[in-house]
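Our preliminary data section would be incomplete without showing what the modeling component actually yields. Below, a chain of 316 amino acids is followed by its predicted structure, encoded as tokens that our downstream tools consume directly.
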Amino acid sequence: MIKKVDSEQYINAMLTAMRAGTEKVRAFYEHRVGLVCTDPKLMLMPWDDHLVHRGDGVFESMKFVNGKLYQLDPHLRRMKRSASSIHLQPPCSWEELADIILDVCSAAECESGLVRVLLGRGVGGFSISPYECPVPSLYVVVYQYDPKPESWYEKGLTAFKTSIPAKQPYLATIKSIDYLPNVLMKREAIEEGFDMPFCFDRMGFLAEGATENVCIVDAGGTIKVPEFNNALAGTTLLRAIQLIADEVPVDYCAISEEDILLAKEVIVCGTSIDAVGVVRFNKKPIHDVRPGPVCKRMRELLAKDAEENGTALKKY
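Predicted structure:
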């Protein structure tokens, strides 16, 4: 039989148990405790949090570079929309949440990092009812940011049409914890030997990548962006479009597989990568099989924007 122990023995065993990935954690916070900690062995989540066993919650991912947190307000606005869609509020005000995120980033004491903010229904039991959870849960963690080398951007990526369909509109527009379709998309890409999976809606139009947005530049030089019906409106893509709109025309429209193959550029945008070009789709070449000038300009503008408009972290 499995050995039965007291709490002290259990805690000692738990803290010495093997756990991958802890070397990347820099600082974390749980609202129930109300403290920031830098020992990743203590970064544990209650099993009865509905965030864990029901996927009942929402999240956001951000980054800070050179001591500046990028797009804090847009991320929180989207989290507020996602939370409102599932009738969830944080256990503090949204203004306090912004301060908490900045404090955790500062406590990490590193110049660059990634931030994950998790807002859940809370602890209270194992049923499906949200009403058994008296207080919502909030977790913030800062972990290591490993930017891609320049050679990665210069080479470009390969992408393919995944067998996983796009999410239905109601769920696609909520950044919920339930990322199982996204996980399966990424798994399929790895198994098939591609960098990026693209999913399509039931009409055959482009939706999004596993964790990134996609846009194209057509033969006439217009940036075409899929309408956000079966895809999450990404903060990075939206900001990139906003920054480049005075230089390049933009159109929101349906995009087919044929449109992708005929494009001058196919661009993937995401928090950790900014903007990178796709040079092959379904093993077929995109234009001259090199990342194009619009993609490069997007990346330049995003880097400049992060430096000029990022929120400076405090010295802890």
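The chain has ten helices and 16 strands. The CA atoms of residues 32 and 249 lie 48 Å apart. Preliminary results of this kind motivate Aim 1 of the renewal.
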